[in-house]
Amino acid sequence: MIRVLLVDDQPLIRSGFRALLDLEDDVEVVAEAADGAECLALVTEHLPDVALVDIQMPVMDGIEATRRIAADPDLADVHVVMLTNYGMDEYVFDALRAGAAGFLVKDILPEDFLHAVRVAARGDALLAPAVTRTLIDRYVSQPPPAFTSGGLEQLTDRERETVALAAGGLSNDEIARRLVISPATAKTHINRAMAKLHARDRAQLVVFAYESGLVTPRGA
Q1: pTM listed for this prediction
Q2: Which residue of 4, 56, 101, 127 lies most exposed, with the fewest beta carbons within 10 A?
Q3: What is each CA distance from 36 to 14, 42, 47, in whole angstroms?
Q4: DSSP string, 112-152
């Protein structure tokens, strides 16, 4: 059972998402929150697999709530997916740096929304093409100096290859086919890279890949 926390200051948005999730046999909405502070309390209480968190909310915004969740070792298994009204939201980069596993645009199709929740619950990064373009465009124009290339020295050659492919948006199965290895081996390389780089999830591996220079955006 996938346990989900809904966090949005608009009751209509929450009720719409809940109506979809309640129809699924493998998903349970454990709680709802209307702001970031309430989100933190409920995350600690319920330990959901996925927290769907709006970016802009009163009291505490979604980015700060995500940052605090990511900083708490007891909440390491909570995957935060940000909810945004626009695929090109200006806060995309800050949210990924804070620890978000990905983004969902609120006008997403119901079947895509349900698929996204399951993807996030598995711990995979969830970045829509428009969001990925935003991230890459940001690096092209103004690369933020969060990581240093020295982090690459911790990775084996095969781990570097898998991280680079993951940054290109490939799944474990696609990485396995590209490198002619098993999906389980691809996943092992990704997990080891995340452990060495202290990355919370694949989304942060994408951030590392661009900031370290392992991957260079086209046109850079």
Answers
A1: 0.67
A2: 56
A3: 14, 10, 15
A4: HHHHHHHHHHTT--B--HHHHHHHHHHHHH----SS-GGGG
